[in-house]
Amino acid sequence: MKHLVKSIVVLSLVLMATHALHAQVASVSVTAAFAPNGRPTSGGSASPSWPGYVVNATNALRGQSPALDDRDVDPAAYEAVLTPISTLEMIYTDFNSWRSSAAPSSTWDQLPAAFDQEKGNRIHFGVQIATDGTTDFALHDLSWALDSTDETDYFDQVGTFAGANYSNTRIGINYGPDHLPGGGDDIIYDNGQDGGLKVNEFTYVGVGDGFLSQEPAPVTNNADIDATLRTLLEACVDCTFDFSATYTLNTGNGAQPVIGRDTIEIYIEPGFGSDFNRNFRLDSGDLDMLTRQVADGSTDIYFDLDRVDENITFNDIQIAVKDLHYTYFGDANDNGVFNSSDLVSVFVAGLYGTGPTEAAVWSTGDWNGDGEFSSTDLVIAMQDGGYDQGPRPPQGAAVVVPEPSAGLLTLLGLVALIYSRRRSS
Asked: What is the 3-state secondary structure (H, E, C) of the chain?
């Protein structure tokens, strides 16, 4: 009986010790974030914003406010991935580029000067590990794995930090004798110290990856990215896949590994949501590009939203207008409503009735993609029934399509008359 009681006590102590060991490793938290290209390619260099990004990322992972947080203003800004993203956010290069744009392109020209020397973008999975201060671990105890669920397992990789050192991207902190962070006796490892040194806290900007755009003999840098995007579209139609990173910390002493993971969703779809000019918003510039492709009889997969016949047709315009931009035919400025300001702007552009000699696009009145602004476009706009109706209602909602009002017809007549006379004077 005494032996039985002793065995139970010993087993209880073992279980308590094991439980305590698990409890002492407070967290392994993983966060996916957008990042500039910190990985120099062959013959290239990293994005100059990478050092600043590292500071902002490690601060953010530790729960401190990063110095910069607006990626539209500064490439070093830190922003976590919270929603599904397109591959436009994951193109990195050995030439100057940012978010899938390079010179020559209108989007690149509109970027602030701070982006001029950037080298594209990747996704990094940052990790923050902390204990209660009484348990320590080493960088050498950490391993990682990237995984993607696409058909080719494109991003699948594994690795360890068994031979790595601490650095400015892999920061270890030993809390010192008081076992408390910030007590004045902390030891920070961030400059080449041996990765076997024990720490109580660890911050890492994270492993990451993206799609290298390095096409053979491109005409321009922007054409290089165009070719990469088209290759992705050809390989994966209406494709959505998961991209994840898993970190495993082996604390030793027979304890179970502690695991942290984050997963994001990536989509590859025709036209990348119809953001053809790649400025990360849907606007009339996208529809201008699409109507021009239809008028030219294009077969470019980049604009083929329906992926039905390998031709860019009026059906692709319908998909963009109704299902993606969520507006009406006639909304020349693509602000979500079709009203008198749109009619005035297209007639001011002066292309009504000029025929094919002066090519029109969406913002100048070509709403059917024939390259002209004519009565046909006005009929299409009236038939769509959106004039002065406000934003297009959600799909499936009951919609009453009104007959063209007398006011609209009168306005069309007056505006057309005014600007036809102005052109002839």
From this structure: CHHHHHHHHHHHHHHHHHHHHHHHEEEEEEEEEEEECCCCCCCCCCCCCHHHHHHHHHHHHCCCCCCCCCCCCCCCCCEECCCCEEHHHHEECCCCEECCECCCCHHHHCCCHHHCCCEEEEEEEEEEEEECCCCCEEHHHEEEEEEECCCCCCCCEEEECCCCECCCCEEEEECCCCCCCCCCCCEEECCCCECCCEECEEEEEEEEECEECCCCCCCCHHHHHHHHHHHHHHHCCCEEEEEEEEEEECCCCCCCCEEEEEEEEEEECHHHHHCCCCCCCCCHHHHHHHHHHHHCCCCCHHHCCCCCCCCCCHHHHHHHHHHHCCCCCCCCCCCCCECHHHHHHHHHCCCECCHHHCCCCHHHCCCCCCCCECHHHHHHHHHHCCECCCCCCCCCCCCCCCCCCHHHHHHHHHHHHHHHHHHHC
Residue 383 pLDDT grade (very low, low, confident, very high; cuts 50, 70, 90): very high
For residue 103, the tally of other CB atoms under 10 A from its CB is: 15
Reported as a pLDDT band with limits 50, 70 and 90, residue 408 is low
